[in-house]
UniProtKB/TrEMBL annotation, chain A:
Pfam families: OapB. It comes from Haloterrigena salina JCM 13891. The lineage of its organism: Archaea, Methanobacteriati, Methanobacteriota, Stenosarchaea group, Halobacteria. This is DUF2073 domain-containing protein. InterPro entries: OapB-like (IPR012017).
UniProtKB/TrEMBL annotation, chain B:
SUPFAM superfamilies: P-loop containing nucleoside triphosphate hydrolases. It comes from Haloterrigena salina JCM 13891. It holds the Pfam family MMR_HSR1. This is Small GTP-binding protein. Transmembrane segments: none annotated.
């Protein structure tokens, strides 16, 4: 599978690379492979957009690994945005049993904390400002 | 009384004793930085044991290690529960030492940020492995719909941990408990001011009822 790579050409266009990663590309990856792919992209200054997001357990591990990689003046961490859970969703145990497996599919935007700023977020809209560092 | 009845009563007394001596439940106090988690942990610990849990500060990430106060017995309206309070560092996805340089020297700010990142990782580990229930503390004067809150509540729900949401700092002018209730309608929200000790009766009633 080809790796998403940044354009390292210093003479190249001055811009921000955005990687849109399909659910299909993620579905057979192990948790740490997903986290490594996301953080490698973010370390390169890219904005990573996941079509189907991460499970809660993967999100928890992403926070943990991100914290271990924060380094003063080099990497401040990540900004991550997904839509909040719909108020009409039934999250109770019974609801999950009756409704079958709860879908984790939710578009997720992840970028370097110093380059992406959330302007507005509600249940149906994420508005973010992305800047070149 | 026949031998069989005596034997049955004896077994019953032993099993009653075994199951009545339950291990205290570990209740993790979670939430974003500066929501008042340590102030709440100290309030609960002082009210029921006389001791504090840790230092409080207006500077974020004052708590950089998870701290446990063991054997806090809370009783209300005939219900009681023995809990270990686990005060955890505020969870975030980013830490920039420059946020602290107004308050301290650069070296201290860098050290604080390093310890803060370790503390957040530790808090996440406790959540996955070591807590039996969660008190999620939010600042009522802040917008509760943030990514960290959404993610953490999702993580707590995915582990089927019982959770109470505490809308803290209701003493502030901008406080809005309704905003928190609307953000997380699937959970019980209890308003309070841990700093001023407002509404602590309802807080203890809910802890005894919900985690007991």
């Amino acid at each position: 599978m080809p790796k998403a790579t940044n354009t390292d050409d210093p003479e190249g266009p001055d811009g921000v690379q955005i990687d849109l990663i399909s659910g299909e590309r993620m579905e057979n990856m192990a948790t740490m492979e997903k986290i490594r792919m996301i953080l490698d992209g973010v370390h390169d200054g890219n904005i990573v957009i996941l079509e189907e997001g991460l499970t809660p357990d993967e999100e928890s591990r992403l926070i943990e690994v991100t914290m271990s990689e924060i380094s003063p003046d080099e990497f401040n961490g990540i900004e991550i945005e997904t839509y909040p859970k719909s108020k009409t969703n039934d999250s109770s145990l019974l609801g999950r049993i009756m409704g079958g497996e709860e879908s984790t599919a939710k578009l997720t935007v992840i970028g370097p904390a110093n380059q992406i700023e959330t302007l507005h977020k509600d249940e149906t809209l994420i508005s973010a400002l992305v800047s070149r560092d | 009384m026949g031998l069989f009845t005596e034997l049955k009563d004896s077994i019953s007394r032993v099993t009653d004793r075994l199951f009545s001596e339950e291990e205290p439940k570990r209740i993790g106090i979670y939430g974003p930085p500066n929501a008042g988690k340590t102030t709440l942990a100290n309030r609960i610990a002082r009210d029921w044991t006389g001791d504090a849990v840790g230092a409080e500060s207006h500077i974020p990430h004052e708590t950089r290690r998870a701290r446990r106060k063991e054997g806090v017995e809370i009783e209300r309206n005939g219900k009681s529960v023995e809990i270990d309070i686990v005060d955890t560092p505020g969870v975030t996805t980013k830490v920039d030492y420059e946020e602290f340089t107004d308050e301290m020297e650069e070296d201290d700010a860098i050290r604080r940020s390093r310890e803060a990142t370790e503390g957040v990782a530790e808090a996440m580990h406790w959540l996955r492995e070591d807590v039996d229930g969660v008190i999620y503390v939010l600042d009522s004067a802040e917008d509760p719909i943030t990514q960290v809150n959404t993610m953490l509540i999702g993580i707590i729900e995915s582990r089927d941990l019982p959770v109470l949401i505490f809308a803290n700092k209701i003493d502030l002018d901008d406080a809005s408990v309704k905003r928190i209730e609307d953000a997380f309608p699937q959970h019980e929200t209890i308003p309070l001011s841990a700093k001023e000790g407002e509404n602590m009766d309802e807080v203890y009633e809910n802890i005894a009822e919900y985690f007991g």
